[in-house]
Amino acid sequence: MAATYDAIVVGSGACGGWAAMELAKAGMKVLMLEAGSHIDPAKDFHHTFLYQMEYRGQAKPGALRRYAGSERNYRIMLDSSENPYTTAPGTVYNWGRSRVLGGRTLHWARASDRMADYEFKAASRDGYGMDWAVSYADMKPYYDRVEGFIGVSAAKEGLPQFPDGVFLPPMPLNCAETIFTAACKSLGWRSTHRRLAQLTRMHNNRPPCHYCGNCVNGCDVGAMFNTVAVTLPPALKTGNVEVRTDTVVAQVRMNNENRAQGVTYIERNTMKSVDVDAKYVVLAASTLENTRLMLLSAKDGLANSSGTLGHYMMDQVGGGGVTGILPKLKGGPSRLDDGKSAGISIPNFQNIDKKTARKDFIRGYVINATGGQSEYPQFASALPGYGSAWKKEVKSRYVAQARVWIAGGEMLSQKENRVELDPEVKDRWGIPVLKIHFTHSDNDRKLIADFQEKADELFKKAGGEAMPGMGRGGPTGFPGAPGSPDVGPGAGGQGGRQGGGPGGGRGAREGAVGGRALGSSIHEVGTARMSASPKDGVLNSFCQTHDVPNLYVFGGNAFPSTGDKHPTLTMMALSARGCDHLLEQAKGKKA
Amino acid sequence: MNLTPAGYIVFGMLPTRRELVDLAVRAAALPGAAEFFAAWLRAAQEHQHGSGSSGFTAPPEPLLLRDYQPKFFAPDDFEALQSFTEILIPTDDTPGAREARCAHYIDFLMQASGDAPQTQNGWRDAMKALQEAGFHAADAKGRAALVEAMSQPERDRTATHPAYSAYRLIKQQNTFAFYTSRAGMIGALEYKGNSYNASFPACTHPEHHTV
Question: Which residue in A51, A381, A398 is closest to B172 by CB distance?
Fold first, then answer.
């Protein structure tokens, strides 16, 4: 039977956008399916000041919160009442999702670090888990290709655990970052500009960043990498891509020859079920949604001869950190400190070889730090006093805010951390939802405890005074409203240790573990890991399923371990490598 | 790492004339983007002319509060609240709660809080506590003294005051109302973000390069 399309790409995020572009450029007829709605940056993304919104960035008081995010960016998030998921007893997991054209690329943190061989081959070094089926040498050309296309601003450092790439000039450091850099030098730690998929000059006909600091609300000009501004336009220009938004894919349909025939989707608004066929099916609907689709598509899960589908779910470890002020900056003039939404990165320097091996834990983490002016002085209502003196003190501290946070704490893979289909709960379209089983290991706790020590050390070296509630982030809920506890005087008296991640609202806390909260980082990976042998995983090194030759899975699914880098760049490089493989396969034989 | 001299990076960030022309062409081609590029180009050009500022002006406040009539608080409570917010955040060399119309905004929020009866009740209790503490009846001097007394537990954990939680509630909501207003965010704090800039201002302070 003749397939209608050469390839169906499910999802339009970082990986879906890349796949659609690559396959279409190579001449394939591609159908891109996106469960969320269409979005037009020129029309839908603006610079909006808090005071321009009735509820100043909050939901209406007492309104049921259906969306993550704020009044400014909920449209590029997801309606959680339509898209529930469940968790097993003992699991606290905050699955941060988007359903919109472009997915999470519209508001991601843009951090783009390459993984290194000490991460790909960590199991060989310390004996835990499984090596990746690729090495840095396999990945390097694809990192080059992706970085070269999307534009990454960064400085070269020559560190093997933090491989350099094809970089645009880095963004300058603000005052707080300069002080933290000096503190790192004094501690003997290497640090660098955070590596960001955010342009510092014209690149591929896209304008440079204008430093508004609005990244999480959608970039109005496409200076930060996102699908709608970067990969979709050239994909559409080929004339080979058809995009259908508001299409909720319900399953991959198989034929009698053990090949994917196509997919079935449900129109989001009409509830109509539609079948589409293609020679290749590429799942790029986000890590956990990809796995959900495979679980929905066959009795024991599609492409699951290894029995590992759904297992080995990971997320990078979040939590801890320090907020406060840098007294050196107190009382200074207001500056555009948060205009780039960035900071510095301190690459992992432990457990990278025998010399740096720790006895108490394995793997590592990257530290980030920044500071200065922010949109809203989160700390102000907790600052005792009132009147002109209080106002002056608020302003004085406002420009001196500082924070240190964990950027990519490696979480160990464990088979029992997994997703399955919930036997009872279904989404708005009648599709069974995921049930998540997710807990941290002792090693995760030791790693975050070590990070906290280092974060405190860095903050102290920078001359910082720890205080709660400092740093970036908009107002968090109406004071006095249910669910926004009074931060009374002396509350948070343990100093400025910050739970959750940067930006506020990020990462669920697992509850204090040994007096310390662990969180997630919206870096969920695993659940269909790559393996050299079909016995050990779902995907091969090209993100093709071992069992179904015309089914590819792009996203974080393939990760056998998290590493300590933000995952998106690696997911995209894996997608680029997978596209090459798919095109080779297509050339070699007619489907 | 290689610490590039900050000034060099700033210079390197500036768009070339060619890039500005490219941008202008794009501005014409993109519907809805013309306004952005006009502002961006202005920022870029002003920067090149050495002004160093983006020349960007934050947009005006919406009309919501301009002629707003209180709906939630009774007139005497509203007067007391207004006075309280202005003691907490006075007008001095920068705008205060008065210019930000904080009491009006709090009333707006509360009248919109029908689905949050606990919040509304909390505010009714707070106004009652102020009344009982004698705030409504007091003159300006008396009110200042009352706020001082109510705020004591913030600094002294052994101190107590029957209207302390009313003080905290008003302070919190007032802080939110003020620093999310144009008067607070732009007028008092001089927030620089959300603007169009040709470059990111690097740290230029030698004293920040050492700890």
Answer: A381
